[in-house]
Design a protein that fits this description.
This protein is an alpha+beta fold. The N and C termini lie far apart (about 50 Å). About 35% of the residues lie in helices and about 15% in strands. It has helices at about 10-15, 20-30, 90-100, 115-125; strands spanning about 35, 40, 50-55, 60-65, 80-85. Helix 1 (about 10-15) crosses helix 2.
């Protein structure tokens, strides 16, 4: 049956991990979607039970395919098609980043000095 095959770029778009299918394809081309540590191509056919590791901005998600999905559905129905296996620590890490903010420098200040970089690294390693 032709409907039994589904490209991963379409699946990632359908389960709302990416806003557009082209964004999903770009993530695949960039190697941000992996299966068993190996980057996946956009033409990869999704199968039920496969586990994918995705990097979306700074979040590292792990998802397992429950059921194939050929068209985009509402966010409430996504749970029927994918099992989010992302560790809770990853969500806590992202929450901490949002709480404390990203590294920001005022416009026109220039690059950090060697001393500034050491202080920044010390703060990062302190967390």
């Amino acid at each position: 049956m032709a409907d039994e095959t589904l490209r991963i770029d379409k699946y990632l778009w359908a389960i709302r991990l990416y806003k557009t299918r082209s964004q999903a394809s770009e993530a695949l081309r960039a190697g941000r979607v992996k299966m068993k540590g190996v980057p996946v191509k956009a033409s990869h056919e999704v199968k039920v039970g496969e586990v994918y590791e995705l990097t979306i901005e700074q979040l590292h998600k792990v998802v397992r395919v429950k059921e194939l999905l050929h068209s985009r559905v509402s966010a409430k129905l996504v749970e029927q098609y994918v099992d989010d296996q992302t560790p809770q620590e990853e969500y806590e890490r992202i929450q901490m980043i949002r709480q404390y903010g990203f590294e920001k420098r005022d416009r026109g200040v220039g690059r950090p000095t060697k001393r500034d970089r050491r202080e920044i690294e010390g703060l990062k390693n302190g967390f």
